[in-house]
Amino acid sequence: MIFICDKTKLQDAIAIAQKAITGKSTMPILEGLYIEANKNTLTLIGSDKDVSIETKLEADVLKEGKIVVDAKIFGEIIRKLPNSEVKIETLENNSIQISCEKSVFNLVHMNSEEFPGLPQINENIIFGIPQNLLRNMIKGTSFAVAQDETRPILQGILFEVENSKLNLVALDGYRLALKSELIDTNNTINAVIPGKTLNEVAKILEDNECVVSITFTTNHILFNLGNTKVISRLLEGEFIKYNALLPQDYKLLVTVDKQAIQNGIERASLMAKDGNSNLIKFDINDDAIVITSNSQLGKVREEVSANMQGEGMQIAFNSKYLLDVLKNMEDGEVEMELTSSISPCIIKNKNAENSKYLVLPVRLVK
Amino acid sequence: MIFICDKTKLQDAIAIAQKAITGKSTMPILEGLYIEANKNTLTLIGSDKDVSIETKLEADVLKEGKIVVDAKIFGEIIRKLPNSEVKIETLENNSIQISCEKSVFNLVHMNSEEFPGLPQINENIIFGIPQNLLRNMIKGTSFAVAQDETRPILQGILFEVENSKLNLVALDGYRLALKSELIDTNNTINAVIPGKTLNEVAKILEDNECVVSITFTTNHILFNLGNTKVISRLLEGEFIKYNALLPQDYKLLVTVDKQAIQNGIERASLMAKDGNSNLIKFDINDDAIVITSNSQLGKVREEVSANMQGEGMQIAFNSKYLLDVLKNMEDGEVEMELTSSISPCIIKNKNAENSKYLVLPVRLVK
């Protein structure tokens, strides 16, 4: 194998493929980056047991071939090279030579035959969605993915397609996040994708409206971004029927400026850190939310102006769960739908229908 | 005690005084921030056993007094408040109330009588030096301070004043850093200040030419920045006679572009990490430095153009020590003075006399 390519383009491609390489595998070959030079195109693949990422770039291929190199050291070498043309060629005794200006590296390589390669997927696109939109949907739900391993299905995000709508849903025992967007498809899909994989996908998705095409198979999802494909396995099992968790009605609607309530909760939570309870109390009355908290360190009282429709109410929360939600919402006014001090609270943007969050209150011992 | 002051100014002052509060003391009072309100001035003091920092700011003092509050939580509260006026007043039962717009915090305070206060120092200024110059001198030497505790005096930086010149010197068993500047004084000083303290001082020094005035006593150094004073204890004992370590002569003078040699060493060291030896070899000949290194991973060859005066030479180094030096030097050409493969190497800026670095080579087993 012999090829010449631009250092910066190669570096960018390595950074993409490397996102699949966690270094946590017990198989040494999965710490490797697969490189194939073929017809003026380089194909790089990184892989672990859950996810594979393939990306392509142009190169001047003088001799075709394929190898696997240690991704970490190879990535570091390329990153540190001058911004110039890089020549890579295989030598005898299982090594490659990397040359760039006056730098010459010799690096051992692994056997490309041992590399598992990509799962075979017949691309049958279900729908396309702008990259920035999907990125926002992932970021707006992934914080609610369960961190503990007692219910593996909750470590994933549900991709639900029905009635030309894509819903992403994540939940743990304390909160739920739902983001929705209209898409152009007549298909119906219900698949759960590991949250960790989606966080890596979100890093690759660009902040523009170029479309990412999505294919589902029985066991996999494929994101096609053009030069880059990400394939993740699906989580096995049935996701929780989340619709049954969302209250259909409420008794008190509170409208409040997002930044004002977020700042108030952040300050109140300074006093709530003691013993990690994060407990803050809301007293909602007279068109204001009074937030209080106290601990051994002292106490705090915050007042935030709000618009109320319904009877006043007292309710307590874990401040962390409210902040996770608010930090992921857009600026502007948010609505809180409340029923009682022991019922779930729904939080939405006042002027956008595409997000819905649920946070359970903390039941206070009287 | 009752006072009103600007939130941002208070926050900035807390950040300065907090740099002395390491949280590593066994005395709880030293986790506290001392606050004294007196004649429209607030005085804040943070302290640990090695260093004390006092800073002053304007305030509208309605009732004089002094307290000590937990520095960490107090700092977090002030930081999170709106950018507005803050009112702080003592209440009964050992607490203070912090009010700002619609936020009210109650926080317990400690007894100000228990606070050790500043060491009494009769300010008798020895010399003044622009803040940015002193900051660069500290940054340019502190990396060479010994990390291990076997010789406590080497955990400090020598401040040596003689012949109207200030020298800062740090060294461990492997390298030495010397920075010099002319100053206006006839005094002679030889004092060693803990490196950790100086790193904190460097963070407070601003990037401008305002003068910091320096006073020495038998046991302390005082940096007076105007509104802020930093007092550090001196390390006991005699510093190493560093001049005896610096070779007076050399056989080979190599002049090389700083960035080019630094980049070459950085790349070569990628292959030298194996086993943490960081070993790289220089072959200096024909107006070029060829840097090589190898490990189980592979090998590397870098070539850097240089100007040579003297016979060619081979010499090996720990790449980390060379990089520490080069990262702290200004861009441009650097000179390396070499005598043999087992003699110290001196590194200087070609066009500036104010820095001198010594790095010991690694002796290769033939």
TrEMBL record, chains A, B:
Transmembrane segments: none annotated. Signal peptide: none annotated. InterPro entries: DNA_clamp_sf, DNA_polIII_beta, DNA_polIII_beta_C, DNA_polIII_beta_cen, DNA_polIII_beta_N. It is found in: Cytoplasm. Residues 1-119 form the DNA polymerase III beta sliding clamp N-terminal domain. Keywords: Cytoplasm, DNA replication, DNA-binding, DNA-directed DNA polymerase, Nucleotidyltransferase, Transferase. One of its GO terms (molecular function) is DNA-directed DNA polymerase activity. Residues 245-363 form the DNA polymerase III beta sliding clamp C-terminal domain. Its main location: cytoplasm. The keyword Cytoplasm applies. One of its GO terms (biological process) is DNA strand elongation involved in DNA replication. Residues 129-239 form the DNA polymerase III beta sliding clamp central domain. SUPFAM superfamilies: DNA clamp. The keyword Metal-binding does not apply. CDD domains: beta_clamp (cd00140). GO terms for cellular component: cytoplasm; DNA polymerase III complex. NCBIfam families: dnan. Belongs to the beta sliding clamp family. Confers DNA tethering and processivity to DNA polymerases and other proteins. Acts as a clamp, forming a ring around DNA (a reaction catalyzed by the clamp-loading complex) which diffuses in an ATP-independent manner freely and bidirectionally along dsDNA. Initially characterized for its ability to contact the catalytic subunit of DNA polymerase III (Pol III), a complex, multichain enzyme responsible for most of the replicative synthesis in bacteria; Pol III exhibits 3'-5' exonuclease proofreading activity. Forms a ring-shaped head-to-tail homodimer around DNA. This is Beta sliding clamp. It comes from Clostridium cavendishii DSM 21758.
